[in-house]
Amino acid sequence: MRVFVTGASGHVGSAVVPELLQAGHQVAGLARSDSSAEALAAAGAEVWRGDLDDLDLLGQAAAAADGVIHLAFKHDEMASGNFPAAVAADLAAIRALASALEGTGKPLVTTSGTLMLAFAGITGRPGTEADFAPSGPRVDAENFVTGLAGRGVRSSAVRLPPIVHSSLDHHGFAHILIGIARQASVSAYVGDGANRWPSVHTLDAARVYRLALESAPAGSRLHAVADEGVPFRDIAAAIGRGAGVPTASISASDAGERFAFLGSFVGVDNPTSSEVTRKVLGWEPAHPGLIEDLEHGHYFRPG
């Protein structure tokens, strides 16, 4: 299968591209910089130069492919506090990709997040693939994608947990939390830290994307989740050990100042099941869990 991948040189993309190539697929990747283009070419992928704002190019690349995996997101916009702009750009890009695939039966695999379940009011139990919100940031894109099943697209949305971890991760939430702990000289959690975050190893997540491309039923919501829910205080403790700083509780009112744009997320309870995804795709995680990966030490070595 000839697969067009956005975000192909990013954290998850750097695992998805070789996963696809090793499975015998051809890959064409979107690259917005010379360094990204060089990395993709070196990996054996065809390069399409452009970015998420090049909607005509996205449509052309999707039309030339047998399937599409959409990983790119304007994380820099989100980190700078302009989350609405990043969300709008993501939805516009998905619409451009979808327009080229309607009526073809080709697969479109996009990216969402498990944290949306917590903000949808799923509490007291792990969120499942059947749970969704009617609307909201990134939720609108996910709902649009699953709705494409009725428009001749074998669509699926992969929900990633807040921490996707491995040595391939250079800018994700784990690194941000470590940087905050080092700057404050303490690794903090909110309240008693019993709130849970799911996680997955990058290589396990990459396999979910490939399997979704190859076999996910149209309109699927999928969970690339290995650790169903790690207590945030355990995450903070592992970061404290690795960074050589103490661990301490802070109040919810102090979270915004301490964690900046992550302030509204660090106290969220987000246990998430992947039982349906494992059955539908025949997927089982094979790589280390979050705490074990943090204990390996690669997150704390000078970069």
Please estimate the helix content.
40-55%
Q: SS-based structural class?
A: alpha/beta
Poorly predicted residue ranges: none
| Count, helices | 13
Could you tell me how far the N terminus lies from the C terminus, measured between alpha carbons in angstroms?
Answer: 36 Å
Provide the β-strand percentage band: 15-25%
Broad shape = globular
The residue-averaged pLDDT reads 96
Lateral arrangement of strands in the main beta sheet: 3-2-1-4-5-6-10
Radius of gyration: 19 Å
SSE order: EHEHEHEHHEHHEEHEEHEEHEHHH
Produce the secondary structure layout.
Layout: E1 2-6, H1 13-22, E2 26-31, H2 34-43, E3 46-49, H3 55-63, E4 67-70, H4 75-79, H5 83-101, E5 107-113, H6 115-119, H7 139-147, E6 154-160, E7 163-165, H8 173-184, E8 187-190, E9 196-201, H9 202-215, E10 220-223, E11 227-231, H10 232-243, E12 247-250, H11 252-259, H12 275-281, H13 290-296
Parallel strand pairs: 1-2, 1-4, 2-3, 4-5, 5-6, 6-10, 7-9, 8-12
Antiparallel strand pairs: 9-11
What features would you describe in this structure?
By secondary structure, this protein is α/β, with parallel strands linked by helices. It contains 13 helices and 12 strands. The protein has a 7-stranded parallel sheet with strand order 3-2-1-4-5-6-10, with helices on both faces. The protein has a 3-stranded mixed sheet with strand order 7-9-11. Strands 8-12 form a two-stranded parallel sheet. Helix 2 links the parallel strand 2 (26-31) and strand 3 (46-49). Helix 1 packs across helix 9, helix 5 (83-101) runs parallel beside helix 7 (139-147) and helix 10 (232-243) packs parallel to helix 13. The two termini are 36 Å apart. The model has no long low-confidence stretch (mean pLDDT 96).
